[in-house]
Amino acid sequence: MQRDQLVFDIIQKELQRQRHGIELIASENFTSLQVMQAMGNVMTNKYAEGYPGRRYYGGCEFVDETEQLAIDRIKQVFHCEYANVQPHSGAQANAAVLLAVLKPGDKILGLDLSMGGHLTHGSPVNFSGKLYQPFFYGVHKDTGLVNYEQLEEVARKEKPKLIICGASAYSRDWDYTRIRKVADEVGAFVMADIAHPAGLIAKGLLASPFEHCHFVTSTTHKTLRGPRGGIILMGKDFENPFGVKDPKGNTRMMSHLMDMAVFPGIQGGPLEHVIASKAIAFGEILSDEFTSYARQVQSNAQAMAKALVAKEYNIISGGTDNHLMLIDLRNKNITGKKAQETLDKAHITLNKNAVPYDDKSPFVTSGIRIGVPAITTRGMKESHMQTVVDLIDKVLMNIDDAQMVSTVSKEVHEFMLQFPLYPELS
Ligand SMILES: Cc1ncc(COP(=O)(O)O)c(C=O)c1O
């Protein structure tokens, strides 16, 4: 077969784009070379429906080994009893939990998408809002902090079967104890979606949800710095409360229902090449090097927030506990859309984002979301955050000056030369 140079050339251009730019998309990161290369392996050829030791196909002895390693390592990372490493993405992980514990039409309660929540937490355009009956809580208008009183009020009124916490655009830690308390009162399960801050939770830098939440889901490609994918975890396995029994009449454990929800519930064959890469990434998370990385992420985010506040950028909740922050640009008279598009021209990538109580459409928005996991992987420290903020500010304060934007893009290239990305790749 002839090498498809057309596609490889496009991939090469993407590598150059990643090398030259300042990557501030909060949900992105740069994997290690071994994590990335492991995804391009022969395990992509293998069908392995089922789980290690109990597959529907022959020849699974080696994919069993890598999948078991991935499971064992991520359990060690989070000190938890159960892990399923097969979800193809974060959305799939959430779909599996909902399938495992809910019936169509059951009530769920999650953080409103427009306040920082995720589509899979009950949005009407997502399966979670179509198959189940969604209710929402928000954040306080004045502080930007989760409105736990509202969460409790809606939970007591609607008695949802599942309360979902976790977010895509929330810069503060969560009170899992408080959420579990009201969940117990109304007979709900709690699911924490830690897709964003998982890497910081892994290193004890944020509160752990495992003691309080029945189910924990995550992506593996954000702060965990693994390949694109999802995981489902349980701090403690427990007998399923739905009365599902095995052929001997013993009550099945929840872990069994969860495995069944992933396969055959929502997925077919697992991506064993990606699972091999997950195993490597989870091994990296166990290292001291990753501990330093996670600490640096948190320090960089705080330094970035401080530098932005000094230039009178309005950060929702006034700062950050984790790796990201949400900025309301209304006092600068710039929309999120315009900011994103213009910064993109200067090779500073981030995303427009609705701010709580936004008066603009989700296609325009009043805000931007900034995250530091990727630039921290590039090697940036606290002192570099000032430079990044200066570059952002130069673009935003000269938003209609194409010449200035072009000058900044050159400064960005120059600045990024200090932080080599995949130097092993030509
Ligand atoms: C909180 C949260 N959950 C789930 C997801 C979905 O992950 P994926 O894009 O891998 O499906 C995201 C993605 O941004 C997220 O922020």
TrEMBL record:
(6S)-5,6,7,8-tetrahydrofolate binds at L113, G117, H118, L119, S361, P362, F363. InterPro entries: PyrdxlP-dep_Trfase (IPR015424), PyrdxlP-dep_Trfase_major (IPR015421), PyrdxlP-dep_Trfase_small (IPR015422), Ser_HO-MeTrfase (IPR001085), Ser_HO-MeTrfase-like (IPR049943), Ser_HO-MeTrfase_PLP_BS (IPR019798), SHMT-like_dom (IPR039429). Keywords: Amino-acid biosynthesis, Cytoplasm, Methyltransferase, One-carbon metabolism, Pyridoxal phosphate, Transferase. Signal peptide: none annotated. It comes from the Bacteria. Its cofactor is pyridoxal 5'-phosphate. PROSITE patterns: SHMT. Residues 2-392 form the Serine hydroxymethyltransferase-like domain. Belongs to the SHMT family. This is Serine hydroxymethyltransferase. The gene is glyA.
